[in-house]
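Appendix B.2, paired examples.
Example (i):
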Amino acid sequence: MLQAWVPSGSIAFGANGVGWSLSCEAFFYALLPVVLPAIRQWSLTKVLSVSASWWLILTIASTILLVLGGRFQLVAFTNPLIHSEEFFVGVAAALAMQRGWRPRLSLTAAAKFALGAYAAVMWLDVPTGGIGLLMALPFLAVIVSAAGADLQGRRGWLPAKPLIYAGQVSYAFYLVHELVILNLLGLLPDSLAKPVFAVIALAVAISLAIALHHLVELAAQRYLSRLMRSRTLHAESRVNVAET
């Protein structure tokens, strides 16, 4: 969970190349209990202004790192501190919605905005390390628009069960997809047409992701839930004994 802090490709992308993002998530989970109680005391204006300022500061810092190139570009791509702006704008949006704010942008419009922004980023050939920073706000627009629709009871196509299940399996898919591609490149013949290779890789990755989700992810969730319930019951019994 610490590999992305090291400015070395062999370490940051070691074992499973996409696993660097776990370092970011671990960092954000560690930050939340510290940050949230403090910013809950702030006014909404202060929350939004601080988040916007942090996003601007890290965008400038990331741009400088990308210009410097080399290992600095790797830092811009993987470093959890650089990615913390995504965490902070998400927390700010969640607090704003808890306090009654609702986005005026429809989910369809937000999706079009995100797709347009992504197309622009690809057309401009933005270095990989800068894509996350530039796409944070368009993706946030999609998330808050979908959350606003849920809170207002507007049912669209997102609550469909197949899509919900796909979302539940999606992180396992993320973790296995690159490993599948790299291993199949060595197993399948070079003469295989690229579309055929893509279909095979997709089918294998989806199958492995479903297995990983059910056999590992859900199993771990059940174990942790039982552990938490057991600890809660134990703590309650000790309180009852002490009161008696």
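Example (ii):
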Amino acid sequence: MCRTRSCEDREAGYTLAALLVILTIISLVIAYTVPEQWSMIMKRERERHTIFLMKQYARAIYNWERKHQALPVSLEQLQKARDPRMLRGSEKLICPLTGREDDWIMVPITAIEAQPGGAAVNPGGQAGVGVGRPQQQQGQQPQAGAMPPSKLNSQASPKDYVGPFVAVRPNATGASMIALKGAEDYSQWVYTLQDLKNEIQMQQLALSLPK
């Protein structure tokens, strides 16, 4: 009886030791992989939030232009605007990519490059950025005057720019996980007043189509 119990105790000890080894290996794998995966998840969420705020600024510029028949010339104008309020939430919006308040670069209309068959720069810098239609692709229907997505010339959008602007972009550089209109570097991200107008136009067109 004692001999049998002794064997069982040794087998239980071996099983426990093996289990501890397996748990140690699993812990090491988790320690090396989970933080990296979590970092990637958080980076993607910061990028999504940044794009959301860029669109919020484009909406604020849109509302400012409708009210004043001109483009804003500073972030403060949009932040302080009331009746109607242009920006929701805190007056100073933190850039998720840098973690700093108002760490945005104002984008002048001259920094938006004309696309083939699309937007031409409006010298007056006012509403209606350019005229024209995108080139119709084979098998596609015309898109009711909508223009191609804006493309940024970052050299024409310096960090110290002050004046009428049609978008904001993050004060950041580096490869992004999310491509914004084909741009995979933060320095090329842009979402302009005209991009917003295109979206509004497409939404109105979709609503007008027969069900």
